[in-house]
Amino acid sequence: MYGLKQMLLQEKNYLDNLVSRLNETMNVNAGVPAANAEGNKASKKGSGIVRDGATISGTENGGNKKNSGATKSGAVIDDTGVAGKVRGKKATECNVFPEGRLRISMDHGVARYYHCVDDRLGYYIPKKNKQLPRQLAQKAYNDSVIKVAVARSRLIDRFLKGYCDDEIERQYEELHPERRALITPVAPTLSQMEALWYEESYVGKAFKEDAPVILTEKGERVRSKSEKILADFFYRNNILYKYEKPLNLGGLVVYPDFTFFSRKLKKEIYWEHEGMMDKQDYARAAVKKINSYQMNGIYPGERLIMTFETEQDVLNSKIVSELVERYLR
Description:
The structure is a single chain. By secondary structure, this protein is α+β, with helices and mostly antiparallel strands. The protein folds into two domains: 4-159, no CATH class; 201-327, no CATH class. 37% of the residues lie in helices and 17% in strands. It has helices spanning 4-27, 37-42, 131-161, 167-173, 177-180, 190-199, 225-236, 280-295, 317-327, and strands at residues 54-55, 73-74, 76-78, 85-86, 89-90, 101-107, 110-116, 123-124, 214-215, 221-222, 242-243, 247-249, 252-254, 258-262, 267-274, 304-308. The longest helix is centred in the middle third of the chain and has 31 residues, at 131-161. It starts with a helix and ends with a helix. Residues 29-39 and 41-95 have low confidence and may be disordered.
């Protein structure tokens, strides 16, 4: 499926940002106290050995006894806690949360929380201390999410090293021209599809008689200097486009500044440059046009590329280059 690589790169970006955000959360506000750890030691009430008919096990549902500790009859004890290294450091070393982990024991249907630091059983957390169990539980959860996200990101890295979106297409395009002439490809190649799209004729929007004549390097007339900058950039980089090709949006005909054939999506995508956003009437019309796109299933960041400009903030060539790399390569 063409575009799978881009989808995986987006997934990897999401995972990496997630890990970064969680790591930052767990390292900001350093110095949060271990929420009355000393007080917990003084309250060593039932420090993990619950009497009156309890069963001690590694999970809250009594299922996984692999990590179970001493057993008396009756309560279920949660021995879970994620250690494990994340990006070369132990997540449990983060300072925003108290050190140690949470153990949960069920005694006759009532949950008891224990703070485990130096031993497996830990110290009883009084009911009035509602913050500590939440901190310890959140820390363990964050650690587990980080571990999974890091593992998935690395898996995507390994997969992408040997993957190419257009591998099947290249079996045809990399052949000698004489051999290609003898072969019918299993499906039109993306280059063939783009070429057919580009050859289709259209009638663009007419210019007013008093409009300035601005020509691109391609010899095409455009309406503004910014549009010339964009058109010249596309032309120099061998990116095929159609200027002001009409588009029907639910009965409303609009003329996108530039229309492209997306090799990733195998369909048209559009580029709108809004160049006078500091003028109220212009900005109002631009918003109306953008809404028309969205009401017809064409959304910014998917099939609609947008750049903006004011008198103070001119077209940024770096942003243009990055947008081209992201959507048109």
